Amino acid sequence: MTKMGLGPSVFYIYSRDKEKNSYDRRYIALLRHEEDMNETHALGVFKRECFAMALGEDHKGAKAIYLYADSWRVARAGWEDGETIRIDFRTTQAKRQFWMGEERLGPKRWPLLERRFEASWASLGSEETTTSLAYARIPSYAK
């Protein structure tokens, strides 16, 4: 997402605390550490953070995490209930980039989590024309 004549966007990922409904500043990540940062790359970093939240590896106590490009929300991942996570995207293109793109590590983040996520969460299916994805915990992996 680039604004005409203003250069590339700055991407942010942050979480919102479930209890206080406030931003949790521990998880605010400014994604401009690489010259080639673009929406596809930022969505790959956001994908990893979604997996971390679902697996309980990070963002504990968060009701949702967000990806912003400057002041525009690109995506939001939040709990529907304790067993379902829903990810909403600004556009079907952003959803497609998330779905098809690689998981990427943000600054000071480790490890990649896609394999563990796919072993314990199942997609609830998605229409090609919608801007949402949903995943449910596989019962044998319930906490």
Description:
This protein is of the alpha+beta class. The chain has one domain (8-141). The protein is built from 3 helices and 9 strands. The protein has helices at residues 39-55, 92-100, 114-120; strands spanning 2-3, 7-8, 11-17, 23-31, 62-69, 72-81, 84-89, 121-123, 132-137. A hairpin with a 2-residue loop joins strand 5 and strand 6 (72-81). Helix 1 packs across helix 3 (114-120). The termini are far apart. Mean pLDDT is 85; it is low at 1-5.
Keywords summarizing the entry:
9 strands; 23% helix; two-stranded antiparallel sheet; 3 helices; seven-stranded antiparallel beta sheet; disordered N terminus; 143 residues; alpha+beta; globular
Number of helical segments with 4 or more residues = 3
Query: In percent terms, what proportion of residues is strand?
Result: 35-45%
Shape: globular
How many separate domains? 1
Could you describe the largest sheet, including whether it forms a barrel? 7 strands, antiparallel
Please report the distance between the alpha carbons of the first and last residues.
Answer: 38 Å
**Which structural category do the helix and sheet elements fall into?**
alpha+beta
Radius of gyration equals 15 Å
SS elements, strand count = 9
Range of helix content: 10-25%
Poorly predicted sequence stretches spanning 5 or more consecutive residues:
1-5
Q: Overall pLDDT, averaged?
A: 85
Spatial strand order of the main sheet? 4-3-5-6-7-9-8
